[in-house]
Amino acid sequence: MKKENSYNQKVEKPKQTQEESGRKAETERACDNVTDENKEEPATVAEPDDKTEGEKNETKECAEKRSSEDEVAEWKDKYLRLQAEFDNFRKRTLREKMDLVQSGGSDVLKSILPVLDDVLRAVEASEKSDDIKSLREGERLVAQKFIDALRQKNVIEIEAVGQDFDPDLHEAVAKFAAGEEKKGKVIDVVQRGYKLGDKVLRFAKVVVGE
């Protein structure tokens, strides 16, 4: 009798393992084949009390799998939205920069146009008048108006004559023997230089004493 019982137990073990494997496969298929209808309208079903511990663990794993998939989809959506927002920001910044350059150039040109009007009037006056003194005075007024217009845009002339030669501001085009006192100093300006704030727009071309 003991031999028969042990034989029956050996035969029944593989059958029980096969049944558990079948239930596990069915649970995995159920997790993968969840329909949209079931997601939208989940039905509340009371779990039978006779569920084994393995089935409960499999149900928990199925729920965790769905939760992980939802989290991945959420982060992917956030990434795509952030990428679209950054692309829009980049395009908007580039457009604003181009508008700023164009508007800045037009603002400078508008400030120069009145000076051009004065220059043209001075040319017409010089053709009709022989009064050299008044013509020269008109030229000085036009030049001063032009200088004032540039100063309003923070453009100033670089000081040169009598100053120590500064390679950051001056460009030496010639040297001239001027004695020991004027050695290394600017004694003449060939072409005026200008700065926009602290930035050099054009170096002053000068003659340096030696």
Give a written overview of the molecule.
It is a single chain. This protein has 210 residues and is of the alpha+beta class. The protein has helices spanning 2-32, 36-40, 53-128, 132-152; strands at 155-157, 170-176, 186-191, 194-196, 199-202, 204-209. A three-stranded antiparallel beta sheet has the order 1-4-5. Helix 1 runs parallel beside helix 3 and helix 3 (53-128) runs antiparallel to helix 4 (132-152). The longest helix is centred in the middle third of the chain and has 76 residues, at 53-128. It is elongated and about 115 Å long. The protein starts with a helix and ends with a strand.
List strands and helices in order, with pairings:
Layout: H1 2-32, H2 36-40, H3 53-128, H4 132-152, E1 155-157, E2 170-176, E3 186-191, E4 194-196, E5 199-202, E6 204-209
Parallel strand pairs: 2-6
Antiparallel strand pairs: 1-4, 3-6, 4-5
Helix pairs in contact: 1-3, 3-4
